[in-house]
UniProtKB/TrEMBL annotation, chain A:
It comes from the Bacteria. Residues 1-20 form the signal peptide. GO terms for biological process: transmembrane transport. The keyword Glycoprotein does not apply. SUPFAM superfamilies: Periplasmic binding protein-like II. Gene3D superfamilies: Periplasmic binding protein-like II (3.40.190.10). This is Extracellular solute-binding protein. InterPro entries: Bact_solute-bd_prot1, SBP, SBP_1_CS. The lineage of its organism: Bacteria, Bacillati, Bacillota, Bacilli, Bacillales. Keywords: Cell membrane, Lipoprotein, Membrane, Palmitate, Signal, Transport. Belongs to the bacterial solute-binding protein 1 family.
TrEMBL record, chain B:
One of its GO terms (biological process) is transmembrane transport. The keyword Metal-binding does not apply. The chain crosses the membrane at residues 9-32, 79-99, 111-131, 161-188, 209-235, 266-287. This is Sugar ABC transporter permease. Residues 73-287 form the ABC transmembrane type-1 domain. PROSITE patterns: ABC_TM1. InterPro entries: ABC_transporter_permease (IPR051393), MetI-like (IPR000515), MetI-like_sf (IPR035906). GO terms for cellular component: plasma membrane. Belongs to the binding-protein-dependent transport system permease family. It is a multi-pass membrane protein. It comes from the Bacteria. Keywords: Cell membrane, Membrane, Transmembrane, Transmembrane helix, Transport. The keyword Cell membrane applies.
Amino acid sequence: MFKRFMKLSLLMVLVFSVLAGCAGKTKEQEENGAAVEETNKKEEKVTLKVAFFQGGYGDAWFKWLKQEFERENQNVTIELEGNPKMNEIIQPRIEANTNVPDIVFVDESLMRKWGPAGKLVDLSDLYETEKTDGKTVAATITESTNTAMDVFGKKYGIPLAQLSQGVIYNVKMFEENGWEYPNSWEEMELLAEAIKAKGIAPLTYPGQYPYYLFPFGHAAYLQYGGTEFIEKITNPTEADIPGVFEDPAFHRTFTLLDQMFKDDWIMKGTLALNHTESQMEFLRGKAAMIFNGAWLENEMKDSIPDGFVMKMMPFPAAKDAIVNEPVIESITSGFGGIPSESKNIEVAKKFLLFSSTDEANRQFTELTGSSRAFIYPVDGLNVSDFTKSAMEATNKYKTVSLVFSPEAISDSPGLDAFGAIASRSKTVEEVIQANVTAAPDKWKENQKLINSK
Amino acid sequence: MKFKVTKRGLFITVMLAWPLIHYLVFGLFLQIQTLLYSFKNWNPYTGKQTWVGFDNYISAFKSMANDGVWTSAIKNSLLFIPINMLSIILSLLVALVLYRKIPFARFYRIVYFFPSIISIVVVTMVFSFALNPTQGIVNGMFDLLGLEEWKRAWLGDTQTALISVFVFCIWAGIGWNNVILTGALQRIPTDYFEVGKLDGITFWNEFRYIVLPISWSTISTLIILGTSGAFTIFLQPMLLTNGGPFNSSTTVALEMYRLVVEKNSYGLAAAYGMIFALIGFVVVWTVKWLTERFETVEI
């Protein structure tokens, strides 16, 4: 009897849980549907759903936007949905048109994927619309940001943040030893020897990830190849393949990198270290400088020793450089866009413009310690000296950012050039040869892929 | 014949439906989808999929022959087969020693099992702290012993990165195998050992004539799992070395993962998946056939 009762109740629980699940969904859907209808009818109460990647920037800025936008637009309620996994979970939702938010703030690679696929609203006009502060988006972004946001001649989003990556040095150590951050590569060579003589490693970086060397490489491409060279690698034509890969600028860049490892500028064991480990070594004073980005301070905030001062600087150029000035990499990261399925496109546009005003940008910097990808005044902002130094470096020096066109096959199609040189696995000549050999096939494959319909 | 709907029948159907649906969706459907993907290209700029015939397979075989990344990945993944075998042998040794009721045997068993219950992220972190080039205990010990020339960046040197990953996998894998093998050993009736002892049997003969034949079914299962597992290893190298330096410790599964996550090349990744599923199938089947050459003694 007891057994039968148990079986029966188990079955009941199962059946009811399934039914309850279904019922719950239908009810929810009904409610949603009703809400949409209602807003359409009255055109006053609007609920704007904003989904955002809640990573290093946290959610404080989005909360501020919600509060201020709701204050100015009494009929609008903003629903925030932040998630550290938003870049992954939003993809099936947008692609299958289910539970689509009105605004997304996610990784910019998704903008390039969704825009041409018709999943995002074309915002090209919005770039010319005046914001509440009287300026337009187009007039307040840098040229490299403008290029970064361009997708086949259209704009599907407004840029979120700007990440500068350069050389960060230990200010106190430099002061104590009477060193100064160099203005030229020749001075850098002298400085490295002086640091080594003190028994300290001149440089370190997260060696497990060769892409931390990219900013150095990209700056060098600009310095030794000029803007035409950058254009050639990011937007090549068939005639450039494979010749561009044996350009003297590649040779010079890779040789400089090779030399750094050969001359023991890089801390011993660096290749074994991940980002936190290498950054820790820098904070412990084992290396005087580190190749890193503007996020370093935030990432290591629990581990920075009292009184530790650091500053971000650009990469200096050698005498033979074509662009003979220091260069820093500045990458546009993240975008805010409106999914085509949104029912509140006009309000969403208003929100995007609102989020790009000088005031909103200044708030972003104050709340996240990072730079918005706009040109805006930073004076009087309550941010750390390090953040200021990173923003100043981006404003003061020449910036570079490689934004590859769909046809392009990266700056190193044959192998991981930076990893190969750093691990001492290949010589500069071998790296260049590998790229020249691999380029024609990669080009053909890529053209076939992007032209497939 | 008529089926009568009974409560019992309904209950059994519902209970069976869950695993069946789960298998159909996450097992069969995904396999078929992967097979279909392998003949398609996914244009990242339009989101459109196109049928491309064997293109993905051709580029996969091309890079398997020429591309340093893939040759290294294939070599390393195949090397994981003997490494997994070594892990089983060591686990068997540990299980045998602990079975002898040495003092603190249970304690050691738990200690060996620890890496299996702790998150792999934490375990790899602990391991890489130990091997840290400047602050790690391993280099510190060499310092203490005056063997300074032995010190190196274990995970950052193309010569030692893969070996370090192997050592990690063996170290972290022993506990799991050990628990399963201990279970097999405990199934052996103690009379066998007692009779053996009366006959003055040696440790080696006891292992050869009693332990191995009786627990062979368990051991052969572990061997087959170890062989097929070699093709799916990717978290360990990803977390310890990120496959580097310069691809020296990468595996096929890690490269497939990268194709999907970093390059959005679903078609190519699917083609590799099919190729390695086929290779894995042949290898595992051969190993299974070999293990069946030895007979298991039923007790």
